[in-house]
Design brief:
Layout (H helix, E strand, L loop, with lengths): L2 E5 L2 E4 L4 E8 L7 E7 L6 E6 L6 E3 L7 E6 L4 E6 L8 E8 L17 E2 L3 E6 L1
Parallel strand pairs: 2-11
Antiparallel strand pairs: 1-3, 3-8, 4-5, 4-9, 5-6, 7-8, 9-10, 9-11
Length: 128
């Protein structure tokens, strides 16, 4: 069983920055492909960013490309989401997800149903 725990959410003004962290345990971290998703009130959950177990492959939603950066530190069992130039429309609960499929490869996943383990979520609120 893999445990996933997010941290780093909060309230920030538009144009500001936040860094989310996600710690995963229960399996060799580099065997896990990781992803960030978000869900705003009244909306469906949407893909934000993903990174392969090796860290060499990443992908972003068009809405965050150029503003958000996903990275991972396999020595610390942690994946990060650096969010810059935040906009009010970025307000949502952000979820971290993990999957061991295609372990240790450069494969990344952008659909929620491709992930097996989820964190509890962390709230990000961007004020205008």
């Amino acid at each position: 069983q893999v445990q996933v725990v997010e941290s780093g959410g909060g309230l920030v003004q538009a144009g500001g920055s936040l860094r989310l962290s996600c710690a995963a345990s229960g399996r060799t971290f580099s065997s896990l492909a990781m992803g960030w998703f978000r869900q705003a009130p009244g909306k469906e959950r949407e893909f934000v960013a993903a990174i392969s177990g090796t860290g060499f492959s990443t992908r972003y939603a068009d809405s965050v490309k150029g503003r958000f950066t996903i990275s991972r530190d396999n020595a610390k069992n942690t994946v990060y989401l650096q969010m810059n130039s935040l906009k009010p429309e970025d307000t949502a609960v952000y979820y971290c997800a993990a999957t061991p499929r295609s372990a240790f490869t450069g494969t990344i996943y952008i659909r929620g149903d491709q992930y097996d383990y989820w964190g509890q979520g962390t709230q990000v609120t961007v004020s205008s």
